[in-house]
């Protein structure tokens, strides 16, 4: 079992253990946010994270620090847990397989078969697995598990788009009906059956006695929740997709990066709050700048600012201004521009302000 999941209002609560036999832990994510973040993970990022695990494993094995254990990976896994539950489950599974490849090789194939999608499993686990040295084994395992991550990520992204936007002839149906139709498609991964138990939101020790439980409940207003066992990543995908649809959460396509997201604050927001690969600003920040520009491009203050910017930029190019002078001028001028526009001041007032800011050369 990978762990279990509970849903509370617009939250997804993942329950899991870091290492076998350790305490049950819990992490919370925004419902729909976790799933859309999973579909938006760029292959460069997932590859990088898998590489870090692999390197750690290979160096631990070659340094002969006993037999590697899950404990060694826990600090890294905790970081992954903070970002996304799907990424976490995959990295934790990779770590588990690396350890099995050292001390219980026979278990490796059945464990992989249970976790991986049928399609990926058939492509990779057909023949006899010949494990070589730590580096090769880790490389091979990493490739297969990463292939599975990409496979499920793309499948889920496609499904989510069909459920939310009704693509591929599903326009006529409601999102819930669309999802039901998808569960009937073979290989959708959405047709799972679940083991559910009733549980308290409270993290009780497994062997907590009734007296302790009663006392603890008196001190809290924790809810009684349904807890679903997770045996493969598909279970979490299907459950989160279903809950997202059932709660009618607004899943949108970001107008900047094109990825899916669930707005956290204002539901009319058009941009996600992620930082795309190669950018240093969040889509929401880039979007706000674009919107501002689009709205005010005709504003005389905006025109005046652009004129002053061009003039000072050419002074910079001609060596009449130092870099630092130009930079601080442009920061101040931009700030004044936005303030003057937002406060409805006149272009004459703005011109005076520009004169004040002008760097004597
Ligand atoms: Zn975005």
How would you characterize the overall build of this protein?
The longest helix has 32 residues, at 134-165. The N and C termini lie far apart (71 Å). The mean pLDDT is 90. Strands 3-2-1-5-4 form a five-stranded antiparallel sheet, covered by helices on one side. Among the domains are: 3-183, no CATH class; 297-357, no CATH class. β6 and β7 (260-261) form a beta hairpin. It has 361 residues and is α+β, with helices and mostly antiparallel strands. The chain has 14 helices and seven strands. The site of zinc ion has 8 residues, from loops. Zinc ion (ZN) binds next to loops.
Structural category is alpha+beta
Mean pLDDT: 90
Note the main sheet. Answer: 5 strands, antiparallel
Helix amount: 55-70%
Q: How far is the first residue's CA from the last residue's CA?
A: 71 Å
What count of helical segments does DSSP give? 14
Could you spell the SSE succession in H and E letters?
EEEHHHHHHHHEHEHEEHHHH
Radius of gyration: 27 Å
| Ligands bound to this protein structure | zinc ion
In terms of DSSP E residues, the strand content is: 5-15%
Strands of the widest sheet, in order across it, are 3-2-1-5-4
Please report the total strand number as a whole number. 7
Which key features would you list for this structure?
binds zinc ion, 56% helix, two-stranded antiparallel ribbon, 5-stranded antiparallel beta sheet, 361 residues, 14 helices, alpha+beta
Provide a quick synopsis of the model.
By secondary structure, this protein is an alpha+beta fold. 56% of the residues lie in helices and 10% in strands.
């Amino acid at each position: 079992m990978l762990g279990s999941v509970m849903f509370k209002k617009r939250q997804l609560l993942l329950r899991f253990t870091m290492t076998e036999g350790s305490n049950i832990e819990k992490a919370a994510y925004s419902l729909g946010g976790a799933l859309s973040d999973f579909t938006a993970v760029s292959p460069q990022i997932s590859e990088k994270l898998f590489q870090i695990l692999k390197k750690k494993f290979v160096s631990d094995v070659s340094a002969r620090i006993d037999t590697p254990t899950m404990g060694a990976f826990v600090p890294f896994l905790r970081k992954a847990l903070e970002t996304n539950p799907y990424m976490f489950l995959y990295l934790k599974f990779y770590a588990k397989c690396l350890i099995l490849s050292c001390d219980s090789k026979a278990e490796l194939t059945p464990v992989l078969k249970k976790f991986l999608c049928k399609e990926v499993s058939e492509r990779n686990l057909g023949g006899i697995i010949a494990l070589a040295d730590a580096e090769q084994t880790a490389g091979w395992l990493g490739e297969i598990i990463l292939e599975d991550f990409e496979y499920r990520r793309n499948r889920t992204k496609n499904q989510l788009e069909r459920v939310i936007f009704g693509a591929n002839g599903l326009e006529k149906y409601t999102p819930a009906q669309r999802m039901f139709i998808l569960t009937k498609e073979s290989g959708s991964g959405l047709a799972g059956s679940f083991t559910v138990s009733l549980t308290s939101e409270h993290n009780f020790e497994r062997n907590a006695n009734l007296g302790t439980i009663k006392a603890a409940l008196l001190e809290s207003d924790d809810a009684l929740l349904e807890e679903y066992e997770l045996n493969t990543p598909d279970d979490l995908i299907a459950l989160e997709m279903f809950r997202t649809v059932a709660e009618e959460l607004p899943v949108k396509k970001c107008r900047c990066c094109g990825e899916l997201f669930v707005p956290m604050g204002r539901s009319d927001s058009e941009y996600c709050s992620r930082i795309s690969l190669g950018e240093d600003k969040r889509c929401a920040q880039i979007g706000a700048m674009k919107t501002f520009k689009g709205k005010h491009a005709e504003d005389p203050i905006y025109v005046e600012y652009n004129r002053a910017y061009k003039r000072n930029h050419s002074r910079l190019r001609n060596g009449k201004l130092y870099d630092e002078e130009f930079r601080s001028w442009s920061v101040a001028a931009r700030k004044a521009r936005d303030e003057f526009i937002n406060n409805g001041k006149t272009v004459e007032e703005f011109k005076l302000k520009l004169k004040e800011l002008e760097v004597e050369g």
